[in-house]
Amino acid sequence: MVRVLDLTRLYPGGVATRILLDLGFEVVKVEDTGAGDYLRDISPLLFEMLNSGKKSVSINLKTREGREAFYRLAARSDVVVEGFRPGVAERLGVGYENLRRLNPRLVYCSINGYGSRGPYAGLPGHDLNYVSVAGHLDPDLYPGEPRVPVVQVADVGSALLCVIGILELLRRGTGGRVEVPMVEAALLFNTLNIAMKTEAGDATLTGKYPFYNVYKCRDGYITIGALEEKFWENLCRALGRDDLRGKQLDPKATRELAAELSRYTCREALEKLWAHDVPAAPANKIEDLPRDPHLAARGYRPGRLLEAIVIDGTRPYTPGKAPRRGEHTREILLELGYTEEEIEELKKKGAIHY
Description:
single chain, alpha/beta, Rossmann fold, formyl-coa transferase, domain 3, 2 domains, 7-stranded mixed β-sheet, 3-stranded antiparallel β-sheet, 10 strands, about 40% helix, elongated
């Protein structure tokens, strides 16, 4: 089994290593002897989603004895994932160059905010900061003022790129280093807008125009994505509004459609639009997700995460509970050759916790 050491906290690294876990890897969370992963307290449910089935060892990397224990573990592992600011792993003695001397075949992945070089490299940040640098909040993309995105694009995007990079180096079998800056993951997600604005001076899939927008019905909201001309014509036909043909880019048509759709319930509007082959969908509330007939038919389960991949008809998922901080410290140190007496001595010195 491929063993992954997860030195990350919070969201991006947790998503990446959760995917690896579900693909059959063994994941060992390496938490410090203090607070550990802050996500335990910030969102116990999200922590459980990301970490069920993983193991946890609690090691103080600021002690010589703790680093030695980690080195032994890294020598017998295949992948290390870290999410420190650039330079921190090196100061702790667990940077790539140190570890590859112990284990030349090691795949070492760094998820960081702005990359290991550049004027912003050492700055703190979160998803909002990364997407703003990547142009997601360009005022020209919005019908009004820029708004805070409600999903974590840079966090999840960097997790997916991390997995791709790790799998590629494992495929090569040579070891090596992967770096995934979250700001560049955010840039990848903005590719379409960048291309459209560069070529045509305007990005049109942003809610500024009627053909690609959110509309309020009597009991909720729906979305319409009538991007191609044939779908816009189908939309006009479905609503009996032939006068709107050719007005996909006319903001006044947004008001006309809004008035038209406000007469219907969401179900009535969707049935009418679907009957005419219009790309439309309900705008679900989070609490309504389990009741969406399509999601229910596809096996959506509240409180479960990352089952979006179907391989040979099966959704990879690792059952179990998220580990307590340091729950597997003794077990793994014994596996590494430490005696019970040595483990107790490490605990007394504050090098480990269990």
